[in-house]
Specification:
Elements (H helix, E strand, L loop, with lengths): L16 H31 L4 H4 L1 H24 L1 H17 L1 H7 L2 H28 L6 H27 L22 H20 L4 E2 L5 E2 L10 H9 L2 H28 L7 H26 L5 H21 L2 H15 L2 H10 L6 H8 L4 H17 L1 H4 L1 H20 L3
Antiparallel strand pairs: 1-2
Helix pairs in contact: 1-6, 1-7, 1-10, 3-4, 3-6, 3-15, 3-16, 4-6, 4-8, 5-6, 5-8, 6-7, 6-15, 7-11, 7-14, 10-11, 10-13, 10-14, 10-16, 10-18, 11-13, 12-13, 12-14, 12-18
Length: 425
């Protein structure tokens, strides 16, 4: 067997540098948008007197949208191409963002949930288009490394989301022990303006993408200028072909469980850090942005480089072991030891989604677009993870609720072992 790293392959072909930069900019956008959810939980718990289980409906709304829209998005992209999929996704995103205006006027959690659902539908289109596109713009041997590079911008967006919105939402919250100095919270009036600004930015991005030509990716996964996608068989036959591939099936399970772990931890990071009352919510949001998501960004950036030297599946195996160890530490320890372990989870989980995604799609050929759309249904795991973790936290405590992400990381670990064994000759 020839080592795939025995001959050097370019990470990004010069011909596709501009399309790669344009598509990679979207990763920052949805990273920023999804990370805002991580501080909304605590905000709604405080302003609407909700339990952790009830506030997790925020994640349920967004990631249910992924589940419902990913397959239609894939079919849309198969017929219309990646560029049209991006423009349509950005349009849905903008509609959801502007719906925060009536949400503020009505001060209704239901309207906010509807807005987040529509925004999530837009994100589903964007991710279904952008992930396989970024992976496919170059040599298949470097697809995991290339996707990790693009996803590093996602990590950068994740830093700014809680950093900015944490200060907006928790600006009036008192520090622990200073309750008598509290300024009355103004409810959800903070949300409409920043989401409206985000909507304007998204509309501008949609206009740009509607006017540029992106090279499509042929069914053999090589970039081409042809905007039509060949189809040698029906969608049903392609679907049957996917289910006959053990790596795809296990990869789908692994990425689903990764979403359970990632979203569960993100959703309740602020709750965990503030649980004993010694740290304020605004400080906790800064810790999430700089400590957790900062390491997430660094991990993805470094992961792209490491995977140009070490096979991606072996890097995934190491990170799977590390995340299981870190979540076990969170469960058993307390104080700064547990918080450091929690932040370390972000470092080691950072490469998981793009690496599983690229490994699972590798070699699918004409089934790539359909396979990508099915993989993008996996964020529904985030809804399940947030609900389950919230329920356990309400009834058994925050520390024990980390059994949920630990189980998710364990499945990723098993997938990496399976992939290594499956490809060993």
């Amino acid at each position: 067997m020839t080592d795939k790293f025995s001959t050097k392959a370019a990470l990004i072909d010069r011909r596709y540098l501009v399309p790669f930069i344009l598509i990679a900019s979207l990763f920052f956008l949805w990273g920023f948008s999804r990370s805002i959810l991580d501080v909304l939980n605590k905000h709604f718990q405080d302003t609407m007197e909700m339990s952790k289980t009830e506030s997790s409906l925020i994640q349920v709304a967004v990631y249910t949208a992924y589940f419902l829209m990913a397959l239609p998005a894939g079919l849309f992209i198969m017929r219309k191409g990646y560029r049209h999929g991006v423009v349509f996704g950005l349009s849905l995103f903008a509609i959801g963002a502007f719906m925060f205006i009536p949400g503020e006027i009505c001060n209704s959690f239901g309207v906010y949930i509807a807005a987040l659902f529509i925004l999530g539908c837009g994100l589903a289109f964007l991710e279904t288009a952008a992930n396989p596109y970024a992976a496919g713009l170059g040599d298949p041997r470097t697809s995991a490394s290339r996707l990790n590079l693009a996803q590093s911008l996602n990590g950068m967006g994740c830093i700014f989301g809680p950093l900015i919105f944490g200060q907006i939402l928790f600006a009036n919250n008192p520090n622990p022990g200073d309750a008598q100095l509290a300024i009355p919270d103004t409810g959800d009036a903070h949300l409409a303006l920043p989401y409206s600004i985000l909507g304007i930015v998204v509309i501008a991005a949609a206009i740009i993408f509607s006017r540029v030509q992106l090279p499509e990716i042929k069914n053999n996964d090589s970039p081409t200028g042809d905007n039509k996608t060949a189809d040698d068989g029906s969608n049903r036959s392609l679907l049957k072909g996917l289910w006959r591939r053990p790596v795809f099936v296990f990869g789908l399970a692994a990425i689903f469980c990764y979403e359970i772990a990632e979203i569960a931890i993100n959703s309740f990071f602020v709750n965990y850090v503030t649980d004993d009352g010694s740290i304020s919510p605004d400080t906790a949001s800064e810790m999430l942005a700089i400590g957790g998501l900062g390491l997430f960004f660094i991990g993805r950036l470094a992961g792209s480089r490491v995977m140009s030297l070490i096979p991606a599946e072996k890097v995934l195996l190491f990170c799977g072991c590390a995340t299981v160890a870190c979540t076990l530490t969170v469960i058993l320890a307390s104080g700064m030891v547990a918080i450091v372990a929690l932040c370390a989870c972000y470092l080691f989980e950072s490469i998981m989604f793009p690496t599983i995604f690229a490994l699972t799609l590798s070699g699918l050929g004409k089934m790539t677009k359909l396979g990508a759309s099915i993989l993008m249904m996996s964020p529904i795991g985030g809804a399940i993870g947030a609900l389950t973790m919230g329920y356990i936290a309400d009834n058994a405590g925050m520390s024990r609720s980390f059994l949920v992400p630990m189980a998710g990381y364990a499945v990723v670990l098993l997938f990496s072992l399976f992939y290594i064994r499956h490809h060993r000759k």
